[in-house]
Specification:
- By secondary structure, this protein is of the alpha+beta class.
- Helices cover 51% and strands 13% of the residues.
- The chain has a three-stranded mixed beta sheet with strand order 2-1-5.
Length: 201
């Protein structure tokens, strides 16, 4: 997670944290229409942190086991766990984002969505993702995402919430014109100007 007081060193990529939910229509729109196209266009100056959790709550039952209540019901909790496992296991940033964006198109059967999207992007280690999603590791990943989400200041009121270098900044503009906001945050060097003037979104 990126602390609110994060200070970016010159030349470092812009750090983008996306706090979202797997069954949230606004999250789906943002990932498909803003996040993925922006990353493809200017990936050289962008680092992405995906945090599926949203307005869920984390609990423990009488046995001490982690349980979750999610805004869009139990299926969303399961889907959030699959997303968390994909984010944790897939190392390639573009493939990770492509799979998450593919899954969020139709997440009502989370395992099927993961398998379909993994095949689409030639990811073979789906057994690791399945093992994660069905284990305490997946639950722990979602719990950590919840802690990160609750730590945001100001507190999350809308999903998705997106931070740029730790700041929520101009949230409405970030959600509608992400590329422009990232390019502003990246700085005003000739290299940045060249990267940011060429994208055709």
């Amino acid at each position: 997670m990126i602390p609110a007081h994060y200070l970016k060193t010159e030349g470092a990529p812009v750090l983008l944290s996306v706090f979202y939910e797997a069954l949230c229509p606004d999250s789906k729109y943002f990932l498909t229409k803003q996040m993925l196209p922006t990353f493809i266009a200017i990936s050289s100056i962008l680092e992405i942190h995906l945090i599926p959790y949203g307005k869920a709550t984390t609990n423990k039952n009488k046995k001490g086991e982690l349980t979750f209540d999610c805004q869009h019901g139990p299926t969303e909790c399961q889907a959030n766990i699959y997303h968390a496992c994909v984010v944790n296991i897939i190392e390639n940033p573009l493939v990770k984002l492509q799979i998450v964006t593919c899954m969020i198109q139709d997440n009502h059967f989370p395992r099927d969505a993961m398998l379909k999207c993994s095949r689409q992007y030639n990811v073979e280690n789906t057994d690791l993702i399945e093992k994660c999603a069905g284990s305490e590791h997946g639950l722990e990943l979602l719990k950590l995402n919840g802690e990160a989400t609750l730590a945001i200041r100001p507190s999350v009121t809308f999903i998705p919430t997106v931070t740029i270098d730790g700041s929520q900044g101009r949230q409405a503009s970030i959600l509608k014109n992400l590329l422009s906001e990232v390019c502003k945050a990246a700085g005003d060097t000739e290299e940045i100007r060249n990267i940011c003037k060429t994208p055709n979104l």
